[in-house]
Amino acid sequence: MIGIVYKSTGSWYTIKTENNHFLECRIKGKFRMQGIKSTNPIAVGDVVDYALENTTDVTTGVIVNIHERKNYIVRKSVNLSHQMHIIASNIDVVFLLVTINNPPTTTSFIDRFLVTAEAYGIEGVLVFNKIDTFDEATLEEQLFLQHIYSEIGYKCLRVSAKESKGIEELKALMIDRVSMFSGHSGVGKSTLVNTLEPALNLKTKQISASHAQGKHTTTFAEMFDLSFGAKIIDTPGIRGFGIVDMEKQEIGDYFPEFFALKGQCKFNNCLHKDEPHCAIKNALENDAIAWSRYKSYTQILEGDEEQYRADIYDAERRASDETRK
Questions:
Q1: Regarding beta strands 178-182 and 93-98, do their DSSP bridges make them parallel or antiparallel, or are they unpaired?
Q2: Alpha carbons 256 and 185: distance in angstroms, whole number
Q3: Residues 6 or more apart in contact with residue 55 via CB below 8 angstroms
Q4: What is the gyration radius of the CA atoms in the chain, in angstroms?
Q5: Which residue among 161, 179, 198, 244 has its CA within the 20 to 30 Å range from the CA of 253?
Q6: What is the 3-state secondary structure (H, E, C) of the chain?
């Protein structure tokens, strides 16, 4: 029998059967995922084969096989630097919730997330949340960021869950698709999901005033069926996002604006660092590519895992303002 994993708590998995019933399942034996060094063999969104188990008063299931994944999105394992944790699989679109200062979302984080989505063939959409809290300076920063990513070709939405702004536009991108919401803790994922589907009543918490970060309210990924014909995967807040499983030569291909120009570089294996006649560096000098994006690229290229939270978009915005005077 076939089911879809809707929830994972580590040892037990909730699957939705073909009869639209939910069943608690465990794993039988060890799963060897070819080519994937993952801390979790099964993820939310996986299509699995299962068998019923009637050894107790409660009917449970045993997962015996995982179907091939269309895609998946990962982050580095918290405890094992050389392994990864699969956040979710078989996703149609991933919405990255971005907040400007409540808590701050850095361009490094945004770029790493988008690069990962590109690498695994998932459409990435930026959702600028909490627009009802913006003052003039915050609005300026948000619009500057939106300009950067819109120019590259990414869809950008401006949303306020509190005031229900931008909600219909968001729903339109979700209908008949499996969506994933992600972002730092405190960016308002659960609040936004509750606005989309109030009956879910997901738990929410306030931002920690002392650390300007959200408290983790979702401790594991879970998929929900929504009343307007969409599925959504709610995920735990992510503080950092390390890139995994990428060769240096391919990293630039996951920056769409780099990929569009790389054929103009003198060398086919150009890493856009010190090579002469590099189309990406020329575009950078001519303000055709954002400096924050190039900075993110070089940090990923150099494996700069310690410093990638450092953000430069505010300095870049000021520099851009100066050049326009």
A1: parallel
A2: 27
A3: none
A4: 21
A5: 179
A6: CEEEEEEECCCCEEEEECCCCEEEEEECCCCCCCCCCECCCCCCCCEEEEEEECCCCCCEEEEEEECCCCCEEEEECCCCCCCEEEEEECCCEEEEEECCCCCCCCHHHHHHHHHHHHHCCCEEEEEECCHHHCCHHHHHHHHHHHHHHHHHCCEEEECECCCCECHHHHHHHHCCCEEEEECCCCCCHHHHHHHHCHHHCCCCCCEECCCCEECCCCCCCEEEEECCCEEEEECCCCCCCCCCCCCHHHHHHHCHHHHCCHHHCCCCCCCCCCCCCCHHHHHHHCCCCCHHHHHHHHHHHCCCCCCCCCCCHHHHHHHHHHHHC
Q: Which residues neighbour 322 within 8 Å (Cβ) at sequence distance 6 or greater? A: none
Total-model pTM: 0.79
Distance between CA atoms of residues 203 and 189, nearest Å: 10
pLDDT, tens only, 113-154: 899 889 888 999 999 999 998 989 999 999 999 999 999 999
| pLDDT tens for each residue of 274-309 | 899 999 999 999 999 999 999 999 999 887 654 444
Task: Between 210 and 250, name the one with better pLDDT.
Answer: 250
Cα separation, 35 vs 32, in Å, equals 9
Of 321, 316, 324, 314, give the one whose Cα is nearest residue 141: 314
